[in-house]
């Protein structure tokens, strides 16, 4: 197998592994609040929104140390261990208790930081400036296929159900736990690239052969990775991209947790309300996959760079927010178990609700594929710290959004995303123009990014 084929193989395995893990996790996140509100046990007092707020809060803080962890443990093993913790979190729902639920939320937050930092490093070392766009698209399309499979099962399994029984819950979460473990095992198939450096590892002609795995060497690499993370955090490009990243955290919370809850709470959808949560997730996945294919796999034919893709993404999202504002009741995110009989500015339409799911996924793929691409392009030598900062900002904003989702009506959640999305698009444009100028100065073709 040629070096280029080996790299593409690694990207595909990386994407398939994430597809399995996030088939389980994203389906879990999509139905968690609905499942919790249907629990009969009076001993359980957890909240799906609060749990995800803890997950993303710990996730954000853990990104400060995740490059050091990946430097010590190595990217492949880091992803394997992190995958195990994802599986444990999902398994908690088989027989949920409040203390186990929130404890698992803390641990998966740490695991997520390590997993995504290692993923960023793996994506970058298996790409160059000519393939980073393609590889980002391949990875993103495979990852977001996870939204299709898990939610397809939910759609058919919960068809016509107005209450989720204990048997329904256990069946779903046992299956999701097994799926997550399959994805974890697949990480072992990733082949290490010769001549690549772990995060924080510097070129050195004085390094003693065979001593690269010593404890002292690993601690040196860990400290170097942490210093790089702090230094990169204050660069102009990272600070500008942080606004865009903040927006992806807010809308991630909305489409992965809040919107499905809104759909399931609308009583006017009748007995289909709960199964529509699964259908919504499917169409979010269709939008994500389509976006990953169009703007990642076909990036070689894009002669205008990343900005038009991001512009298209924000227009699609604004359209989705407008339709959701008119279609969904304002109290849907915080409705009780009985649901809501309110209406917005039109009679709630199932078709409009599902179309908005597609638009949310399509717009999200535009932002994330281009952020992955520009980070891999700008920070090819410092991939782990750069991706750690990206996930730090994204996750802390997701945590804040999950927290306020317990209290804010739908209209205020939509307004926050519109404002942050507008400014995030502008800041991305500024960084992309600078990247294009740097590429032109090197005499490279702008379409190659």
UniProtKB/TrEMBL annotation:
Keywords: Glycoprotein, Membrane, Transmembrane, Transmembrane helix
Parts of the chain that traverse the membrane: 7-26, 46-65, 77-94, 100-118, 138-158, 170-190, 238-256, 276-297, 309-328, 386-404, 410-431
Organism of derivation: Probosciger aterrimus
Protein name in the entry: UNC93-like protein MFSD11
Any one Gene Ontology cellular component term annotated for this protein: membrane
Keyword Ligase carried by entry: no
Membrane topology summary: Multi-pass membrane protein
Location in or out of the cell: Membrane
Gene3D superfamilies: MFS general substrate transporter like domains (1.20.1250.20)
Gene that encodes the chain: Mfsd11
Family note: Belongs to the unc-93 family.
InterPro entries listed in its UniProt record: Ion_channel_UNC-93 (IPR010291), MFS_trans_sf (IPR036259), UNC-93-like_regulator (IPR051617)
